[in-house]
Write a sequence for this structure.
């Protein structure tokens, strides 16, 4: 995903590899009329290789700075994947990343990974201004205790969405509208269904297992945040 500002581009995630960055992401930017030379920042929502895989290539080629939570920089360092970006900027909870008058809010939403980050992004369609949210890690964790953390993050992020009147929903896994994990409920949370505002439509249930579903609406054509994948 690319956020096009007056002073350059903020990428949210960077696909799976240098080859993907070169063969998919860069042509996608050019199709939008965006110059890849203007990539300034790459916000990595979490430390899985299908999100940071192209970041090192883009950092090396364009001098882009790479941001990730300290926790997930540690996660990446622990696994030492070959295509990992060099450790760079750390995302603090609630941090604003400002470029060209566009301020992106970055909120810690641990669960999918210990350091998942979810952005809130000002967007516009024509002259109409909107606020987009992006849930940074879709699938809930499978370990016994982490679902509690995931649920807590949903609550905290919903509060941020309400505070900012977020009205555009995006997902890091747009084809994964719903997911479920095998039961870990013996040690898992006991929660009542959570219904967010209708356009947020987030639900977490605890029954035979944990089931979490997001039904994000895609932005209307013309919204200035463009999904490249
Ligand atoms: Zn992931």
């Amino acid at each position: 995903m690319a956020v096009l500002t007056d002073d350059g581009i903020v990428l949210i995630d960077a696909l799976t590899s240098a080859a993907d960055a070169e063969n998919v992401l860069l042509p996608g930017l050019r199709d939008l009329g965006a110059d890849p030379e203007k990539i300034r920042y790459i916000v990595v929502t979490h430390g899985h290789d299908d999100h940071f895989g192209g970041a090192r290539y883009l950092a090396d080629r364009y001098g882009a700075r790479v941001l990730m939570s300290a926790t997930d920089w540690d996660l990446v360092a622990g696994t030492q994947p070959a295509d990992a970006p060099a450790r760079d900027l750390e995302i603090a909870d609630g941090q604003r990343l400002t470029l060209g008058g566009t301020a992106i809010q970055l909120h810690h939403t641990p669960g999918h990974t210990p350091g998942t980050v979810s952005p809130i992004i000002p967007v516009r369609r024509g002259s109409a201004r909107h606020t987009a949210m992006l849930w940074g890690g879709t699938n809930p964790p499978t370990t016994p205790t982490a679902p509690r953390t995931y649920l807590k993050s949903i609550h905290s992020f919903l509060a941020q969405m309400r505070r900012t009147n977020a009205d555009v929903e995006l997902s890091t896994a747009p084809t994964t509208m719903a997911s479920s994990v095998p039961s870990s409920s013996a040690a898992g949370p006991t929660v009542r269904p959570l219904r967010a505002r209708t356009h947020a439509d987030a639900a977490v249930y605890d029954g035979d297992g944990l089931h979490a579903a997001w039904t994000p609406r895609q932005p209307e054509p013309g919204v200035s945040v463009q999904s490249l994948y």
